[in-house]
């Protein structure tokens, strides 16, 4: 995320050339903040696209609205709160942590912990069960014979 | 008439599938070799019948036969022939036929390359594949028939979704399905081994090349899908963690774990129980992916509930396959031996740890993909789970996996000594850390994630170099050339595939760290500069395509005053469904891509234009192709060639030696 902001700052603060095309946005600072917000917001009418990427007319309208809010000096959190109040959590691509989403957020790390514990326990138990059978002389001779054959063949 | 032939061929294929699924497995159980011998001809007959059905559907498309419902709904008389043929898998019914076709292709391949397998094993494998095929054929014939007639015929077809009218779409689904369905072979091997109770190192060696081939196809298929999204969707993203993408990525993660686990079972006889479980998991996830993508449950849980026929069929099929195989697993797996002993700190231990990480990652993707569906179905609210979530959970799981990837190949089997490993790896570690700290400054911006990405990539490459040096010294041989030829190809394959991961990581890191974009309003003759490149807009012209009209912009690109190329992005309007598509223009390069897409027309010939400069973005797909190449090198290893060659009677020395080679 920081990259995006950084790269946007780099690209918007560059020198202005003589017949350089004008940025679509009027206020580069607001635009950078909009981008930063819009990549985590869902375009509500699209199949699965962020507000930043969508070309749908509704997404365009919503972007304009967010732009206006940002221009009025609302903080990012205020904008998000407003959107959630209007559209629900569905608009957020980063689901908020609450009772119904706890499992979603802790799940991956629970999985990892279970996996790691299972691994350690199984390996411990296994180490007790498996007894290495020493190689007999006969087997040793057989191995050497096979190795010699293999060497000749390759 | 032709569609009816196709339909009839499918019905016959279903009958053959029943025979193939029942008789050989029963024959293997009672030891009746006449019944077992049915497997091979049945599999080949089924292959032939499905090919006939597939060709019939292809003919209906080529012939613009709009009296076939499926043809009428996914093609149009204006659609060029190659897209009409690609439209066979452009929607639900046809992609299932493609799935079944590919399943029978794999089946046919098994009949060709299984002469070295014991007859019971081969019959069981083909039998299990027959049963899987039975499920799909039954599905097509009951609720999803591609040959269903539309009477009276439509005067004109509804056309293929414009998004799919792209060369990438012609090749991407067959590749992806080759991978998906390829895991059915590994699955069939595992089930056959469970049925027969002979889960041994030979079983692992036999199923290894099949699994690797499937994995290669899946890798390439996913990479192509991502590349398609990149240039076709017009916003320059290459992965969105979309449920459809996740559906293909989950089997890949399980398959990657399986490939590694099979290596241990093959070489050391360990992890058998776990390997079998992974084989079941990889194929189950392929089926789950099909269910997710094809049942419509993703678009809306409620749409699924209003027309649940198809979804319920796949769900039931899924339950039977997964439940049945897990039950068999629970019944049979405890009898399987343990294999050799090994310490926690050993190559086996690290491979297992890597497996745990991969499976945890797979589980997280599964959780993130299904969670919103469950919440919605339980009326607990609608949420969106998108890239911020997946990035947050996936990166922490993958970083240790990538770190272990460097150490694992250098650790000894059975027991590795930490001080020894540390000594051998110290310069790789030093080089990686220094590069990761310094390089971002040289490139112009230091961020923790950029540094971390580079650390992992350099770590993978430097450890691979150390491993290779030790290996070359170990094999002996006089000249370097001789040493190189003495190192087994499976080892080269592993190195190449791992370096592919490094290339991929570099691509992702660089593009995330240094990508720049600009949204500009461009009048004719105006320029915009991005990443040292200057774009001059020469205006947009109207062009007419076979089934669309478009505005095509021309952008002259120059670097330091020297003109390098001209790009022609388009805004297309497809007539049949009146849909607007953005065709981005891309100037690809080893070190950067330049990407232009047209937004909306503004007044006086001006356009809103989006420009991207994407450093190293092609490394993302390049890395995937290198990974797949590694897989291809690995299966060309001498051991497998010996196993294949054995079926030619002239080379077969004697039964005794031959058995030793594959065992």
Report on this model:
- By secondary structure, chain A is mostly helical.
- Chain A is 61% helix and 1% strand.
- Chain A has two domains: 90 residues, Helicase, Ruva Protein, domain 3 (Orthogonal Bundle), CATH 1.10.8.640; 55 residues, no CATH class.
- In chain A, α1 packs antiparallel against α2 and α2 crosses α3.
- Chain A is elongated and about 85 Å long.
- About 7% of the residues of chain A have low confidence.
- By secondary structure, chain B is of the alpha+beta class.
- Chain B folds into four domains: 165 residues, no CATH class; 243 residues, no CATH class; 124 residues; 101 residues.
- In chain B, the strands form two sheets. In chain B, strands 2, 3, 4, 5, 6 and 7 form a six-stranded antiparallel beta sheet that branches. In chain B, strands 1-10-9-8 form a four-stranded antiparallel beta sheet.
- In chain B, α9 packs antiparallel against α20, α16 packs across α17 and α19 runs antiparallel to α20.
- The chains are: A mainly alpha (154), B alpha+beta (663).
Principal-axes geometry of chain A comes out as elongated
From the N-terminal CA to the C-terminal CA of chain A, the straight-line distance is 55 Å
User: Greatest interface and its residue counts?
Assistant: A-B, 58 and 71 residues
Sketch the topology of chain A as an H/E string, one letter per element: HEHHHHH
**Class from helix and strand fractions of chain A:** mainly alpha
Largest sheet of chain A: none
CATH superfamily of the largest domain in chain A: Cytochrome C biogenesis protein
| Count of the domains of chain B | 4
Structural shape of chain B = globular
Mean pLDDT of chain A: 79
């Amino acid at each position: 995320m920081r990259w995006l902001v950084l790269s946007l700052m780099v690209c918007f603060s560059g020198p202005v050339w003589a017949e350089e095309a004008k940025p679509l946005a009027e206020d580069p600072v607001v635009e950078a903040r909009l981008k930063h917000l819009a990549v985590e917001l869902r375009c509500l009418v699209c199949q699965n696209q962020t507000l930043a990427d969508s070309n749908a007319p509704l997404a365009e309208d919503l972007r304009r609205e967010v732009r206006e809010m940002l221009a009025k000096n609302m903080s990012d959190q205020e904008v998000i709160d407003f959107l959630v109040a209007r559209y629900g959590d569905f608009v957020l691509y980063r689901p908020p942590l609450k009772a119904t989403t706890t499992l979603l957020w802790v799940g991956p790390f629970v999985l990892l912990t279970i996996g790691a514990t299972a691994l350690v326990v199984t390996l411990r138990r296994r180490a007790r069960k498996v007894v290495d059978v020493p190689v007999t002389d006969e087997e040793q001779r057989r191995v050497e014979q096979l190795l010699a054959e293999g060497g000749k063949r390759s | 008439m032709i569609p009816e032939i196709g339909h009839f061929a499918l019905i016959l294929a279903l009958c053959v599938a029943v025979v193939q699924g029942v008789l050989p497995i029963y024959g293997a159980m009672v030891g009746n070799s006449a019944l077992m011998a049915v497997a091979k001809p049945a599999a080949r007959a089924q292959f032939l019948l499905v090919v006939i059905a597939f060709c019939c559907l292809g003919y209906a498309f080529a012939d613009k036969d709009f009296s076939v419902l499926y043809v009428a709904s996914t093609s149009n008389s204006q659609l060029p022939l190659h897209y009409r043929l690609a439209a066979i898998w452009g929607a639900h019914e046809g992609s299932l036929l493609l799935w079944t076709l590919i399943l029978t292709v794999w089946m046919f391949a098994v009949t060709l390359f299984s002469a070295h397998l014991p007859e019971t094993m081969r019959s069981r494998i083909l039998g299990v594949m027959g049963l899987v095929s039975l499920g799909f054929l039954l599905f097509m014939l009951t609720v999803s028939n591609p040959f269903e007639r539309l009477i009276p015929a439509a005067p004109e077809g509804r056309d293929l979704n414009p998004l799919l009218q792209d060369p990438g779409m012609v090749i991407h689904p067959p590749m992806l399905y080759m991978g998906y369905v390829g895991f059915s072979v590994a699955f069939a091997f595992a089930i056959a081994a469970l049925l027969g109770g002979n889960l041994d190192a030979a079983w692992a060696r036999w199923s290894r090349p099949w699994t690797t081939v499937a994995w290669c196809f899946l890798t390439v298929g996913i990479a192509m899908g991502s590349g398609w999204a990149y240039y076709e969707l017009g916003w320059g993203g290459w992965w969105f963690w979309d449920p459809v993408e996740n559906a293909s990525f989950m089997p890949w993660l399980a398959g990657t774990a399986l490939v590694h686990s099979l290596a241990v079972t093959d070489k050391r006889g360990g992890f058998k129980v776990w390997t079998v479980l992974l084989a079941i998991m990889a194929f189950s996830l392929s089926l789950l992916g099909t269910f997710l993508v094809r049942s419509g449950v993703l678009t809306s849980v409620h749409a699924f509930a209003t027309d649940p026929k198809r979804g319920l069929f796949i769900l039931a099929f899924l339950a039977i396959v997964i439940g049945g195989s897990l039950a068999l697993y629970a019944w049979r797996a405890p009898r399987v031996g343990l294999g050799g002993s090994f310490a926690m700190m050993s190559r086996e231990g690290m491979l297992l740890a890597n497996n745990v990480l991969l499976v945890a990652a797979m589980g997280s993707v599964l959780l993130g993909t299904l969670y919103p569906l469950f919440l919605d179905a339980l009326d607990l609210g609608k949420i969106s789970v998108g890239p911020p979530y997946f990035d947050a959970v996936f990166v922490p799981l993958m970083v240790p996996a990538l770190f272990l990837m460097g150490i694992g190949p250098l650790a000894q089997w059975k027991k590795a000594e930490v001080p020894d490993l540390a000594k051998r790896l110290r310069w790789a570690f030093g080089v990686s850390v220094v590069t990761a700290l310094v390089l971002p400054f040289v490139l112009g911006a230091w961020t923790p994630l950029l540094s971390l990405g580079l650390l992992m990539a350099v770590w993978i490459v430097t450890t691979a170099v150390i491993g290779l040096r030790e290996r070359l010294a170990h094999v002996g041989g006089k000249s370097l050339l001789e040493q190189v030829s003495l190192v087994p190809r499976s080892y080269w394959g592993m190195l190449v595939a791992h370096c592919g991961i490094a290339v991929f990581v570099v691509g992702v890191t660089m593009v995330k760290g240094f990508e720049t974009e600009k949204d500009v309003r461009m009048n004719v003759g105006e320029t915009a500069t991005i990443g040292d490149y200057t774009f001059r807009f020469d205006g947009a012209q109207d062009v007419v395509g076979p089934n669309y009209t478009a505005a095509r912009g021309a952008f002259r690109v120059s670097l330091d005053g020297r003109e390098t190329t001209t790009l022609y992005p388009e805004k297309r309007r497809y007539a049949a469904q009146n849909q607007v598509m953005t065709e981005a223009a891309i100037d690809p390069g080893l070190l950067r891509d330049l990407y232009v897409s047209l937004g909306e027309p503004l007044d006086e010939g001006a356009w809103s234009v989006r420009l991207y400069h994407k450093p190293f973005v092609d490394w993302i797909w390049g890395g995937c192709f290198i990974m797949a190449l590694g897989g291809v090198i690995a299966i060309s290893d001498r051991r497998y060639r010996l196993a294949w060659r054995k079926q030619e009677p002239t080379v077969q020395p004697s039964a005794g030696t031959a058995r030793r080679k594959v065992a």
